Amino acid sequence: MAVQYGGVRQAGGIMTNPIVAGLKDGFIVSCQALANEPLFGSDMMAAMAVAAEDGGAAAIRANTPQDIAVIKRRCRVPVIGLYKKHYPDSDVYITPTIREVDDVVRAGADIVAIDSTSMTRPGNERLDRLIAEIRKSFPETPIMADVSTFEEGAAAMRLGVDVVSTTLSGYTPYSPQQPSPDIALVARLAALGRAPVFAEGRIWTIEECLRCFEAGAHAVVVGTAITRPQEIVRRFVTRISMQMQGFEG
């Protein structure tokens, strides 16, 4: 049975962390940029986060202690923090070890997101041990499990995480490779009724967002479709080019 930590009871009997409970039916914006992208930098991401908050975002998802700290100073909504770090012996990179968790929590994150896939972790560490260490070191910090499959999500729930997110569906070699959001995964995990489920990954439209809520998502996270303008422009240009070629043909 999953261990529950200091929560409030939600519909369906799930005991939910108060911060997570407060995000029910919320729209969350992921403000991240890669080092080779035009908007990379904490000031840029903080400005994006402020704009998202002004638009009504319920929370911000942010990468790196630097970005988290600046966003926390400028925004009032909760911040879901992560720290992407690559280790030579593992493909796990979203807050992979307790060192990154420590950095994220100390930067002010209200929730910490960790890779909870079945891939080999740095140092061959077990996920259950990492979660136990987080609970011991940071008992007040809710844990978000980023997963790619139903089996991973169910396992994370059994380990007592506060929320499961479909973030990595399509980003592991063994999860469904599809251009659209994995709404089926959202529905299957939500139907378990063991922990809140966040929908994330390849959500481009309001219609897709609403379908995620209809499938049982506690909240929906959108990143690229809002905060990576080069990808937004590329979609327009590609679609226009295809359409014009069709006309010319």
TrEMBL record:
The keyword Phosphoprotein does not apply. Pathway: Amino-sugar metabolism; N-acetylneuraminate degradation; D-fructose 6-phosphate from N-acetylneuraminate: step 3/5. Its EC number is 5.1.3.9. The keyword Isomerase applies. Keywords: Carbohydrate metabolism, Isomerase. It catalyses: an N-acyl-D-glucosamine 6-phosphate = an N-acyl-D-mannosamine 6-phosphate. InterPro entries: Aldolase_TIM, NanE, RibuloseP-bd_barrel. GO terms for molecular function: N-acylglucosamine-6-phosphate 2-epimerase activity. SUPFAM superfamilies: Ribulose-phoshate binding barrel (SSF51366). Belongs to the NanE family. Converts N-acetylmannosamine-6-phosphate (ManNAc-6-P) to N-acetylglucosamine-6-phosphate (GlcNAc-6-P). This is Putative N-acetylmannosamine-6-phosphate 2-epimerase. The lineage of its organism: Bacteria, Bacillati, Bacillota, Bacilli, Bacillales. The gene is nanE.
